[in-house]
């Protein structure tokens, strides 16, 4: 059987066969092709009513009673447990709160402290989203470590007896490259160091397997593939057997064993709550909790399968429509090395993206020359993909 | 002219003469006497519609475009500038984001770094809300300083050539005592150290005068007297002439001079933005921005005058209604030493507060033996105060 030559017709067939296609109805969407869910996920349809209830009834009527009666106080752990299966973690190891940057700081400092005396070097992904590098530099400075930027491929040879911790990205924010979390984690452990993974571009996009692969600590954001809303709080994973040794550099009262005891001496809580700091931002947090309900009955494995089909199809459509050499994919072709986005390099990427957005295809631009397209299987279909590639070709032409 | 003997009649007269009485209509309130605005402020009436717009239109329709078109990106500085006049700061010195605990960490570490070599001691208010003490301990540990807890009264004699920074509360969270910010700041400066003030219980309750009194750094929460909603983001003040030396321990990408340059080398932004860290929690933040509109046309000085009248009247009603010795006020009688709350000590405070709440008078309990009543002049009236004291007397009887 020969491959269909008409991508539009093929898209129709793929959409008709897509078991996840109906999930699109769980979101507020219009006729724009939204390929920026790797920056800000679309709005789940039931979230506005839930947020309205939090504001009007929980805050407006119950007021202070909501800390207990509406479950505000326990939200960070409860929502953490809702995220946990999406990243392959058993309950009790994920807590929600603060920004990704703040959580990177907690995780990295805690990892260095776990490594102990004699280990005074932090390895950081040299291609990382910048904030991880900036925060790693501060964590190194404040723990008396040296910071050594290396590419993920160089990590195995860079590891040594001095290595305390390694901060890596599961998926590169710019290229969409998926790094080998199991192998790199094993290498870090073989060197006696601790692995901290940034899951911003993989949580909700593909299986992570934190428990299965023995990851030590991980952080991730919730406003990309988890659709939690603009700036929704990040999450922190601390493997259960390390929680007793998690020594936070931000020991706020929410992480105290007895937060309302109001004692001057700090005593850390047990479990995931040890990663908390101050009062949680309830509106953002409960919007996230509502948003996570779109995952009811959805497996990350099915999402991953569709994600690969979408990015495969996009690359094929681009190959079909866009003149050779006009753009170059910097996203790996191999499935094992690809996240849920496609990054195309072209010299005038900034201008091209503006025109694309003007024509209803929304991706984003990353300096200096990358067009970034994120594929969120919960609400992006194959016809969207075909249209995006077609409009891209017209825009580039 | 003799003082009226009937507190209920007096309350009516005081309410009739209250120029701020009409502000109550700006809030969603019921027949409960809400004296817990020092823990969670009441819901401003126009906030639900504004939050709904942020969710449905800004997030749901504009999506990623809102970072620019809806002013999301600049919200931390813009809202900081709205808070600034309420704490006596000129524009460009306050930024909103993160929790109070996280901001205490930023401010204290930055203060120690400003103090420089040879100054290796941090003084912290020994009676502080615990989180400040826990975070100060971490800041001390991570900057190689000793931490020395002292009462605010002991600060002048504890200051010396080793003192790097002093972390103080403007108003004590438990007793409601107002500390002498101008005099203590001057003493800290005379010793060559830096003053960090926690304004959680004074911002929005009384004039602070940050610029006037030369405060170096300050933090505060926005969900108490500023009514920003549960866990709304905190604020950080860095005096303008110190901003160039503000060396943050949490240098996230939002504080970079060129955040979208995606450069691996960190270069701090100028101005208040240097205090930012990661992506701001937009829903919580824009709810706060809307909430701050209740301050339109309202002066903090007028609020302070009414606050003192309310707490005076409450103490008088308690004296009238409650048998001598049944409760003891731990809030100073002198206006210059009183914040906007009254704290009453009684052995069975925990049980008493539960009964009070059951009867529609909402304050809170602070272990081990304190009944806390906060007075928010924007929506609490004198009849509320009389009723609270009367119900308290009945509850205690």
TrEMBL record, chains A, B:
<comment type="similarity">
    <text>Belongs to the kynureninase family.</text>
</comment>
<keyword id="KW-0663">Pyridoxal phosphate</keyword>
<dbReference type="InterPro" id="IPR015422">
    <property type="entry name" value="PyrdxlP-dep_Trfase_small"/>
</dbReference>
<feature type="binding site">
    <location>
        <position position="198"/>
    </location>
    <ligand>
        <name>pyridoxal 5'-phosphate</name>
    </ligand>
</feature>
<dbReference type="GO" id="GO:0009435">
    <property type="term" value="P:NAD+ biosynthetic process"/>
</dbReference>
<feature type="binding site">
    <location>
        <position position="101"/>
    </location>
    <ligand>
        <name>pyridoxal 5'-phosphate</name>
    </ligand>
</feature>
<dbReference type="GO" id="GO:0043420">
    <property type="term" value="P:anthranilate metabolic process"/>
</dbReference>
<protein>
    <recommendedName>
        <fullName>Kynureninase</fullName>
        <ecNumber>3.7.1.3</ecNumber>
    </recommendedName>
</protein>
<dbReference type="GO" id="GO:0097053">
    <property type="term" value="P:L-kynurenine catabolic process"/>
</dbReference>
<feature type="binding site">
    <location>
        <begin position="129"/>
        <end position="132"/>
    </location>
    <ligand>
        <name>pyridoxal 5'-phosphate</name>
    </ligand>
</feature>
<keyword id="KW-0662">Pyridine nucleotide biosynthesis</keyword>
<feature type="binding site">
    <location>
        <position position="100"/>
    </location>
    <ligand>
        <name>pyridoxal 5'-phosphate</name>
    </ligand>
</feature>
<dbReference type="GO" id="GO:0019805">
    <property type="term" value="P:quinolinate biosynthetic process"/>
</dbReference>
<feature type="binding site">
    <location>
        <position position="279"/>
    </location>
    <ligand>
        <name>pyridoxal 5'-phosphate</name>
    </ligand>
</feature>
<comment type="pathway">
    <text>Cofactor biosynthesis; NAD(+) biosynthesis; quinolinate from L-kynurenine: step 2/3.</text>
</comment>
<feature type="modified residue" description="N6-(pyridoxal phosphate)lysine">
    <location>
        <position position="224"/>
    </location>
</feature>
<dbReference type="Pfam" id="PF22580">
    <property type="entry name" value="KYNU_C"/>
</dbReference>
<dbReference type="InterPro" id="IPR010111">
    <property type="entry name" value="Kynureninase"/>
</dbReference>
<comment type="pathway">
    <text>Amino-acid degradation; L-kynurenine degradation; L-alanine and anthranilate from L-kynurenine: step 1/1.</text>
</comment>
<dbReference type="InterPro" id="IPR015424">
    <property type="entry name" value="PyrdxlP-dep_Trfase"/>
</dbReference>
<dbReference type="InterPro" id="IPR015421">
    <property type="entry name" value="PyrdxlP-dep_Trfase_major"/>
</dbReference>
<comment type="subunit">
    <text>Homodimer.</text>
</comment>
<dbReference type="GO" id="GO:0030170">
    <property type="term" value="F:pyridoxal phosphate binding"/>
</dbReference>
<dbReference type="GO" id="GO:0030429">
    <property type="term" value="F:kynureninase activity"/>
</dbReference>
<feature type="binding site">
    <location>
        <position position="223"/>
    </location>
    <ligand>
        <name>pyridoxal 5'-phosphate</name>
    </ligand>
</feature>
<feature type="binding site">
    <location>
        <position position="201"/>
    </location>
    <ligand>
        <name>pyridoxal 5'-phosphate</name>
    </ligand>
</feature>
<feature type="binding site">
    <location>
        <position position="253"/>
    </location>
    <ligand>
        <name>pyridoxal 5'-phosphate</name>
    </ligand>
</feature>
<keyword id="KW-0378">Hydrolase</keyword>
<dbReference type="GO" id="GO:0019441">
    <property type="term" value="P:L-tryptophan catabolic process to kynurenine"/>
</dbReference>
<dbReference type="GO" id="GO:0005737">
    <property type="term" value="C:cytoplasm"/>
</dbReference>
<comment type="function">
    <text>Catalyzes the cleavage of L-kynurenine (L-Kyn) and L-3-hydroxykynurenine (L-3OHKyn) into anthranilic acid (AA) and 3-hydroxyanthranilic acid (3-OHAA), respectively.</text>
</comment>
């Amino acid at each position: 059987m020969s491959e269909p030559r008409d991508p539009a017709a093929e898209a129709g067939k793929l959409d008709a066969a897509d078991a996840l296609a109906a999930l699109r109805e769980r979101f507020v969407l219009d006729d724009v092709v939204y390929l920026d869910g790797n920056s800000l996920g679309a709005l789940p349809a039931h979230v506005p009513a839930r947020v309205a209830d939090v504001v009007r009834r929980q805050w407006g009527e119950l007021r202070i009673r909501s800390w207990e009666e509406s479950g505000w106080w326990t939200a960070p752990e409860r929502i953490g447990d809702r995220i946990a299966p999406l990243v392959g973690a058993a309950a009790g190891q994920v807590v929600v709160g603060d920004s990704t940057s703040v959580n990177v700081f907690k995780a990295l400092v805690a990892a260095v402290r776990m490594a102990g005396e004699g280990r005074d070097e932090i390895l950081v992904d040299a291609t990382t989203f910048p904030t991880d590098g900036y925060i790693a530099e501060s964590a190194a400075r404040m723990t008396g470590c040296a910071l050594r930027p290396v590419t993920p491929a160089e990590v195995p040879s860079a590891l040594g007896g001095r290595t305390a911790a390694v901060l890596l990205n599961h998926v590169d924010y710019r290229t969409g490259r998926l790094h080998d979390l199991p192998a790199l984690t094993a290498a870090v452990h073989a060197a006696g160091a601790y692995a901290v993974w940034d899951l911003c571009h993989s949580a909700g996009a593909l299986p992570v397997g934190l428990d299965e692969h023995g990851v030590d600590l991980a952080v991730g954001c919730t406003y990309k593939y988890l659709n939690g809303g603009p700036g929704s709080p990040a999450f922190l994973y601390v493997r259960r057997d390390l929680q007793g040794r998690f020594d936070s550099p931000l020991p706020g009262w929410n992480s105290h064993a007895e937060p309302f005891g109001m004692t001057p001496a700090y005593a850390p809580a047990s479990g995931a709550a040890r990663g908390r700091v101050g009062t949680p931002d309830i509106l953002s947090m409960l919007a996230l909790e509502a948003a996570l309900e779109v995952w009811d009955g959805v497996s990350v494995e099915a999402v991953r399968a569709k994600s690969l089909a979408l990015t495969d199809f996009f690359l094929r459509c681009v190959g079909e429509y866009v003149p050779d050499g006009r753009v170059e994919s910097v996203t790996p072709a191999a499935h094992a090395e690809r996240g849920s986005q496609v990054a195309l390099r072209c010299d005038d990427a900034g201008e091209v993206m503006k025109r694309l957005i003007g024509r209803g295809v929304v991706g984003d631009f990353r300096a200096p020359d990358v067009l970034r397209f994120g594929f969120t299987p919960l609400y992006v279909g194959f016809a969207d993909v075909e249209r995006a590639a077609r409009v891209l070709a017209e825009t580039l032409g």
